[in-house]
Amino acid sequence: AIELDPNYAKAYYRRATCYLQTLKYKQAIADFKKLLTLEPQNQLVRMQLDSTQKILRKVEFEKAIEVEEEKSAVERCLEIIAEGGCEIDKGYTGPVLPKNDDGKYTINAEFVQKMIQWFKDGKSIPRRYVWEIVLGAHSHFVQEESLVNVDIEDGMTIDVIGDVHGQFYDYLHLLSLTGEPNEKHALLMNGDLVDRGSWSIEVIVTALAFKWLYPRRMFINRGNHESKEMNRTYGFEGEAKHKFGEQTYKLFAHVFTEMPLATLVSATKPPEGPVKNAILSPDGRKRYFVVHGGLFSKDGVTLDDIRQIKRIGQQPGQEGIMCEAGLLWTDPQELPGRGPSKRGVGIAFGPDVTKRWCAANGVTGVIRSHEVRQDGYSIEHDGLCITVFSAPNYVDQAGNKGAFIRIDAAGSQQFTQFDAQPHPPMKPMAYASGGLASLLM
Prior knowledge:
It is built from 14 helices and 14 strands. The chain is an alpha/beta fold. The strands form 3 sheets. It has a 6-stranded mixed sheet with strand order 1-5-6-10-12-11. α8 (200-213) links the parallel β3 and β4 (218-221). The radius of gyration is 22 Å and the shape is globular.
């Protein structure tokens, strides 16, 4: 549109908002400035320009002072705890995190249930409890490879959950449908637990509590929103600092880098019924590659390549294997081959790419999230690529359903849809950076 009419103001505005949503602040600023030369009295654009410039200054300042610290956020929190700097307020009357015989904090199902109700009532737990829960999950994440293997034993099921995005009250409804993790039932959250929704803390703390309590039945993949750049813009950084302080945010930011990048969910029983042209594992079983974004910018990437990615302490950014290669950012497309992403970050991959990769790796299908689907899920690429999205009526605007996928020991899939639930009167993006919530939704 700009090529056809260099003075078409609306095109500059739309391009600026796209740049902003993909964290390309300098390009957004240039378009806002051009728009103001066309419409010098447009006070809304002037305000958006000012807000974007403030975000850019903050980002550049943080990059300038960011030095690799000798201690990680985990080590620093443990040090503060040892120094007595993170004690429980004597006036606290909520759920009590239990201790073991050595006087160290532990966790049980009773505490988790009471904590969830406490959150539902709009109350907060002590910062010390948040740290203990995050550290408890950390102790398990660091033992997992970048590609986690989950075998579905006979009589067991696993539910794959897509983006939740801080929609806590919808997450509680979702858990009432899936059931909580137990010996015969596992949950796999496929990234983007935080940002946009204004109860991201409650969502992530609940999920990490289950990870600490049921480490072999609660699995969490990293999404593109489990990253500093996205958290800075889309609300989680502001929410974490508002509710529990800067050191708590640093702890979350580090533990996000410890989350595995993908999960290989494998059936242990032969497929039920005719398999037709299904791609099976070398031992004749169905198995699914579950990842937040999708497939890769090049052919030849193997499961072992993903397993060996050194992820801890790494931010995905907008290039490199976690982004460009596909794990956290890419989307499927209808056309064959690969193409530019409509997001401006990562690439899009076609049905032929999916089929080649699944055949080469003995994978029955790819299950990914990352995109809103009106029905909560969609089946694409001749059944080889499934998108599942679990944030109904996304940001209180999209009107979509949420969904999850249940997989049993034979690799059979069952889809469940659900609707959004009422929540307290707080808008999405309440903690978003620089007052740009309306632009970023």
